[in-house]
Amino acid sequence: MDRVATDHPHVLVVTGMSGAGRSSAAKILEDLGYTVIDNLPPRLLVPAAQAHDILADRHKHLAVVIDSRGGLPIEELRNAVEELGRPGVMTRVVFLDADDDVIVTRYEENKRPHPLGHPTISESISAERELLTDLREEADVIVDTSSLNVHELRDSLTAQFSEEDMTRPMQVSLRSFGFKHGTPRDTDLLFDVRFLPNPHWVPELRPLRGTDERVAEYVMDADGAKEFVDRIDELLDFLIPRFEVEGKSYLAVAIGCTGGHHRSVAIVEELGRRLAQHGVKATVRHRDIDR
After folding, report:
1. What are the structural domains of the chain?
2. I need a labelling partner for 11 at 20 to 30 A (CA). Which of 96, 226, 242, 264 fits?
3. Distance between CA atoms of 274 and 237, rounded to whole angstroms?
């Protein structure tokens, strides 16, 4: 599928786990200029988009929030998205997710019942996650809100779905993380750099981070480090234009080490520099650098 022209509309189908931030996402998208329809049954997705085309500004973008209260039949939603994928319309399914314990905490703090209504919040979350498994696997973009506050969620959605950025070439997100803190959910490509020597065991480097020149030099001088970065650079050079042809506008790449302080940070920084040299727009984030 060719990239859409800049004057054509976007349709975002926003779904995901209850408690992962769908309501917040809807408000943010509304601020970005989208017409937002909340809690729409999948069978009404196509009629709603058609009515939007007729009644609203043809170039105004549409975001439809669909939740699991109606059962969320995956085949029905899949057919609707395929029907919406007509020439000139960029249709994306955005899945909001979060760790189970984070969702439990949010419900306990808000003192609200879970929409599935099982005896416990944990049981409701488990049932909903099973219900949404197929949809999550087919989503175009997964946004993990576990560690995001509302301002960071706004930044993430703005970077991906503002009118200005939706019409630009693919954006790449480079993120370092520590495996001991869990792997990030919203990742397209994940790489493990724990094969490199760990600066943690060098006393003068332990208190520093991978953004420090001394740590970066130690990591990049290790056997295999430069070859690893070269190969990832070549892989991204191969993948990005092909993903763009298929209409993908955002690529999330995660690099992990043990704690997310040294090796993964240095490698992400180096990849960010490489992509900038290629003219690729990349954002760099170090999830666990301060843990």
Report:
1. 10-168 (3.40.50.300), 172-286 (no CATH)
2. 242
3. 10
